[in-house]
Amino acid sequence: MTYLIEGETGDWEVVIGLEVHAQIISKAKLFSSAATEFGAEPNSQVSLVDAAMPGMLPVINEVCIGQAVRTGLGLNARINLHSVFERKNYFYPDLPQGYQISQFLEPIVGEGVITLDMPEGPRDIGVERLHMEQDAGKSLHDQDPKRTFIDLNRSGIALMEIVSKPDLRSPAEAGTYMRKLRAIVRYLGTCDGNMEQGSLRCDANVSVRPVGEKELRTRTEIKNINSVRFVMAAIEYEAERQVEIYEDGGNVVQETRLYDANKGETWSMRSKEEAHDYRYFPDPDLLPVDLTQEFVDEIKASLPELPDAKKQRFVNDFGVAVDDAATLVADKETADYFEAVADSGDAKLAANWIIQELFAVLNKDSLGIAESPVSSDDLGKLVGLIADNTISGRIAKDVFEVMVTEGGDPAQIVENKGLKQITDTGEIEAMIDALINDNPDQTQQYRDGNTKVTGWFVGQIMKATGGKANPQMVNELLKKKLGLG
Amino acid sequence: MNSLTDLTIARSRDGLDKGDFSAVELAEAHIAAVEAARDLNAFITETPELALERAKASDERRAKGAAASAMDGIPIAVKDLYCTDGVATTAGSHILEDFTPPYESTVTQNLKEAGAVMLGKTNMDEFAMGSANITSYHGNVINPWKLDDGKDRVPGGSSGGSAAAVAGHLALGGAGSDTGGSIRQPASFSGIVGMKPTYGRCSRWGMVAFASSLDQAGPMTRTVEDAAIMLQSMVSHDKKDSTSVDQSIPDFAAALTSNIKDLKVGVPKEYRLDGMPGEIETLWQQGIEWLKAAGAEPVEISLPYTKYALPTYYIVAPAEASSNLARYDGVRYGLRVEGDSLDEMYENTRGQGFGAEVRRRIMIGTYVLSAGYYDAYYVKAMKLRTLILQEFQQAFEGVDVMLTPTAPSPAFAIGEKLDDPVQMYLNDVFTVPASLAGLPAISVPGGLSDEGLPLGLHLITKPFDEETLFRVGGVLEEAANFTAQPSYLEGVA
Predict the structure, then answer these.
(1) Which terminus of chain B has a lower count of CB atoms within 10 Å, N or C?
(2) Which chain A residue has the Cα nearest residue B347?
(3) What interface predicted TM-score (ipTM) does this complex get?
(4) CATH of the structural domain B4-263+398-492, one choice from 3.40.50.1370, 3.40.50.2000, 3.40.50.620, 3.90.1300.10
């Protein structure tokens, strides 16, 4: 299903490229030993280097180099054994050095690819490059009516900028790309992916063109979008804005825009004419980064199973449906949870229970899987009870309810509440016999060909047993007793 | 001449070891000399209390037979771009006038641990940008060498304060820094030894940066042996400076064997400039003869890219400086001149905080890095820099050391060469190539100009071959037998 914007002159296609800033998981900053913990007292995690005191020099944190290579490998990208840090020069109060140390002409990671699971099938989105850079500090404009305060805790923290090719064609694809990228870096342990805390931020380059046109038209860049939902909404708004401009006979201006989540609009921050001349040049305080192939190979050997491979394994080894597998691998905690549940019983059943029942509970209270009121252990036991016919699926839902609200071991709950399924054929047979005897009308209807009445019989048995009869067994015995077995 | 201020570092060490005098006495003599010579304007900040404190500690160490090094108890002057813990560090600039760092540069820390006694922080061209010490916010330094024309002469720059302090016997040694010649040219102008080690020998951590790929610390002393002794206490491999090199450190003073037999001395013909004063040429020839007489073999060599060195330098150094000096923005430390907007605050602070020469170089550097000019200037300059380095490498396959003049003229009078910055930049014409190639080099006093001002001879060697540099320098020194004293000393005595 292609995403097109209907205009008066025809249909328009949206072209999107994303630049994602991902904060590298590392105890120390990119070029200093200051701590990186989120939420610390302002200016409590600032070294002399971060504050750009005279004579201070950056020294590369090798952990960050490893993390960038790891991420590159996770994106199936080319690792550049030789890369160079350059200075991006501009003045701003929260940029103490007056330049940001970044990579420009020679980034550490080259082209790669991210595969998206779209409803219409898989889509390969090209990654142009990944480079490392230091974050700026934070300007606090809301602390005082006249003054701006600066917090340098973030100054110098290591970021990876991951730049996609302009391969995305809809807000939905952009959203899926963000989620997929977030899943990959979380699997890799290179970024916590926390968009609320700013560890993952996104700039979107958006342009539109009439369907069929080959050239790219002027793009605008929407800066610093901090949630997947806003990424999609901002692109949708911006694309429509651009179509409107073209249809009114105007031209889109190349500029930087910001997204206002409250209004759901983008607004111009600065135009190309006001654009900075960053005067990039290689940082003379740092040597080029020269890696050995062994270093890269070692990291490669330590990569965890990534979402795509895990999904394939869930389908192949567990027989989970492709869509369900995609849902389960979307984040690593869910995948791990699933595997734990699947371990103790029926994998397909485990997948259904997580996606149907557990997700409903979690979504209702906006909980993450890590905060699930039901542990994977307990859910595994519950699935086990269903799989070995100790309880029926319907009873299981009641047990689950108890597990969610009161907690506890499912076997214990079944035991305490006497919910164990009746699997004694003799007992059920006797009940069916009695039922047939007491209800000749219904029996006759059935024999006359109205098989729908089976449901009534089953219902009666279930009612009598408080739902504890094994429904499958009841069905089979009924057919036999009523003469069709 | 038996005053404590007339000794060398080596003689002082011996005297201290023998107990002829104490480090406190040595310090007191120099503190008195510093105070008596304020007219030279060599120091921006004097630290007499600190000096006495360190001298006292030095005497205590020596009394226990635990002298830290040959520098223990030696009074030195420190260029004001070395950040010194608790002591104002201005880099000769208004913008850092009130800046006192809470940390100590690696080089001064090394000197401190070696027991050296800091007398104070010396005057310098603002941010080390200059060749005459006339761009300092704290006023120009006066060269202790005077003629009877009544004019004050520049000490050279940018380490002019350290040069004047050593030449004027206010300190036994000076810590300088050399970006394009800032140790060697003032050494030549002041009749002392100035030495720049291989780029990476000394840590740049805590040195106020001018041009990161060129800046290098080095000693300024009255003898070659003293330079070797002082350098020993400055070098180290420092993990805090990525460009510092992990190279074995030899005993530099032990290299002064006077034996240069069969050593090949390259004499690059391109250093023979049109219009160069005859006295410079004569001294150069004399230097060649001295080395020949000592058993070395002079070889004429060609370094055709030499003529591009100065323009290359004046693209690379300002480019790096324009970025290095961006941090002086009035936001966190140093001068702030308020304005009605952020941009105005920047303009006021930097406009008033930086002097004219610094502003000029920031403008040049910004220009050569700008979109549209980057390839034509910066990229081309970097290519030339590589070619200059390769040319040196090739030449050093055939020779062990090179001999050139240090500067194209003796010290000039304060006020001269002010109108044309390019004339001023030409002072560095002989020193800049070795800077671009990161090579060790030394200026040794060779003789006097026709008028009676000192002239230096300049030696360059392969990377990390400081030993050959000191050995040949020692031979030159011996042959030159430079005993002339600045007239200022006569006045004081």
Answers:
(1) N
(2) A91
(3) 0.96
(4) 3.90.1300.10
